[in-house]
Structure formats: C-alpha cells, structure tokens
Amino acid sequence: MTIPALKLTSGDAPPSVGLGLWKIDPEAVSEVVLQAAKLGYRHFDSASDYGNEAEVGTGIRQILDDAVCRRDELWVTSKLWNTDHAREHVRSAALRSLADLGLDYLDLTRMALPLVTKGFRTPSAAPRYSSRSSDVRRRDHHDASAGLGLAT
C-alpha cells in the first residue's frame, strides 16, 4: 500500500494517512505498529498521555531492526499534554517523549488540545490533571516550542 504525502510549506511531506495510537493497549501496541508498517503505514500519531509511548517506541525499533523501512521514511508525531504548556515544561515533556519512543527527533510535536490545565506529573505515569484552568498563555507555549531545537 502506498500512501500519498502532503507537501507542507516547510518542505516536509508527511503521509496523508496515519495510524492514531490512542486507546491501543500498551501490551498490543508495539505489534500493531510493526504490522501497520508492514502494510505501508509510515505516519504514527502518538502522545505521552496515551500511556503507551514506550511500547510504541518498541514497535518503531522493530520496524527499523527488521528493515521494514528507514527512520527517514517514518513520520512520528507526539503531543504536548495540557499540563505541560508552560515554558518551563515544554522541553522536558518533549525530551520525555523522545526517550519513551527511543528516537533522536520527532517529525511533529504539537499541543494535544489548546486547553491548559494545572496538574502534576510523575516520571513513570501518565499525566494527572485537574479541570482548573492555568494562567499559561498560548504565546508562552509557542515561544518555548519554537526554541526546542530537537529536530535534526
């Protein structure tokens, strides 16, 4: 299966169809990712909040180890959770996703939702959050994200 790419003004060309990894059981997701790649999927849509990003990374490593495709043929997206929009949290959240996925770079990182909530994280758990709004401004998030320098 060949999936057409979308040409972005940046010059990047993500596949027009991707596999969303939300709600896929962590015990099954690495095999799902591997089998999807064998079927032709190259875009994998992940997020730390999904609670399965480390296992997604296992699937991606298997894709690369089995030579299903190269890393530069994949498009991997991750999302910044609502509790991590503050300038001081953006970089650590992105680095956590990179570590969980076992990657050197993400093709796209974005906000999960344009909603900021107060909350806390633990190093080994999905985010915990409240419904209280935070005073983080969208501009703070944008400025912090633009300065990540995580792409190659």
Furnish the topology, listing elements before pairings:
Layout: E1 19-20, H1 26-39, E2 43-45, H2 53-65, E3 75-80, H3 87-101, E4 108-111, E5 117-120, E6 128-133, H4 138-146
Parallel strand pairs: 1-2, 2-3, 3-4
Antiparallel strand pairs: 5-6
- With strands numbered from the N-terminus, the spatial order across the biggest sheet is 1-2-3-4
Q: What proportion of the residues form beta strands (DSSP E)?
A: 15-25%
> Would you tell me the overall average pLDDT?
82
Number of beta-strand segments: 6
Q: Helix-strand pattern, N to C? A: EHEHEHEEEH
Query: Major sheet: size, sense and barrel closure?
Result: 4 strands, parallel
* Class from secondary-structure proportions: alpha/beta
Characterise the protein shown here:
The structure is a single chain. With 152 residues, the chain is an alpha/beta fold. Helix content is 34%, strand content 16%. The protein has 4 helices and 6 strands. The chain has a 4-stranded parallel beta sheet, with helices on one face. It has a two-stranded antiparallel ribbon with strand order 5-6. Strand 3, helix 3 and strand 4 form a beta-alpha-beta unit. Helix 1 runs parallel beside helix 2, helix 2 packs across helix 3 and helix 3 crosses helix 4. It is globular, with a radius of gyration of 16 Å. About 5% of the residues have low confidence.
Summarize, please.
By secondary structure, this protein is an alpha/beta fold. The protein contains 4 helices and 6 strands.
List keywords for this structure.
152 residues, alpha/beta, four-stranded parallel sheet, two-stranded antiparallel ribbon, 4 helices, globular
